[in-house]
Amino acid sequence: MGRFLVREESLSKPWERSRLWGYESFRVLKQKKGTENVLGLTLDMRMLEKEKLHGSLELKTDALSKCLD
Fold first, then answer.
1. What's the superkingdom here (predicted)?
2. Contact 66/36 with Cβ under 8 angstroms?
């Protein structure tokens, strides 16, 4: 039920939600769209195996730099 309530915060823009998990976490970090609304973030590295990414994936904390502005 909690995840449903968080999704209701912004259905089409996960970076505007207070908490992120699953694929949405990776998407926000890759696209550098973190906002001051993000209070919690989980990363499940097993999801990378499912995506079958070739090479390496670089995730930087500056993706959340909008939170500091």
1. Eukaryota
2. yes
